[in-house]
Write a structure and sequence with these properties.
single chain, about 240 residues, mainly alpha, Cyclin A, domain 1, 2 domains
């Protein structure tokens, strides 16, 4: 895939050690693949997020350059479907992945190449489970963001809220965070608050101030430094996106 043979196998790759910047670009592209494949597979937001976290966790434990990253991504999608109880057929994952890299192509035939690829996905799934010590359930910020949006909506002028898609923007920002390993470095609550803070700020919406800031009321251990750190990391991902085009 991506300039290589359409047939993937779980093999170690040679060559010189790539730079950290190149690794970050690869990670970004792989997570974008997971998200786009997830849309085509009809996956919900949380299973897609779980697939991304599985990939980031796996990269923490191994030298990802020793493996075919898109095969690992396919296995993460397959495993995430099981974890989040949205089971996906390996055939569908393989065909969606094949079309991602070979636009307009017909589905793969059930020949030896297909079965070899299917076996590679399953073997890689087992490898991921072993590397993560079977710890594959994660807490995501999505449920917190939903709660925070409902809490904040009552504090904003109704007409202003209707005019500005704050909830949709915050959700999109949260999704973008998974292109990098922010989910490993920031707590789910902090990510949710920061995404909502940035969405409100983007539309110039201000909330009434009391003894505490609204984000301190929603999340007791939240500090402005946490918001700044999350937003800074997200902006770096957007800069990286421009380099990946």
């Amino acid at each position: 895939m991506a300039g290589t043979s359409s047939r993937l196998s779980l093999v170690r790759t040679g060559g010189a050690r790539e730079s950290s910047d190149r690794d970050m670009k690869t990670c970004f592209r792989v997570c974008r693949f997971i998200m786009e494949a997830g849309v085509k597979l009809g996956m919900r937001s949380v299973p897609v997020a779980t697939a991304c976290v599985l990939y980031h966790r796996f990269c923490e434990r191994v030298d990802i350059r020793a493996y075919e990253p898109f095969l690992v991504a396919m296995s993460c999608i397959y495993l995430a479907g099981k974890v989040e109880e949205q089971h996906l057929r390996t055939r569908d994952i393989i065909n969606v992945s094949h079309r991602y890299f070979h636009g307009g192509s017909a589905p793969l035939e059930c020949d030896q190449e297909f079965w070899d690829l299917r076996d590679s996905v399953v073997q890689c799934e087992l490898l991921i489970l072993r590397q993560l010590d079977f710890h594959v359930s994660f807490e995501h910020p999505h449920k917190y963001l939903l709660h925070y949006v409902l809490s904040v909506r009552s504090l904003v002028n109704r007409h202003a809220w209707t005019r500005c898609p704050v909830a949709e923007t915050a959700w999109a920002l949260l999704r973008d965070c998974y292109h990098g390993d922010m989910c490993l470095r920031h707590s789910p609550r902090h990510m949710a608050v920061s995404a909502l803070y940035l969405a409100l700020h983007s539309y110039g919406l201000e909330l009434p101030r009391g003894d505490k800031e609204w984000w301190q009321v929603l999340c007791a251990d939240m500090k402005r430094a946490h918001i700044d750190a999350v937003i800074s990391d997200l902006l770096q991902l957007y800069d990286l996106e421009a380099k990946c085009v």
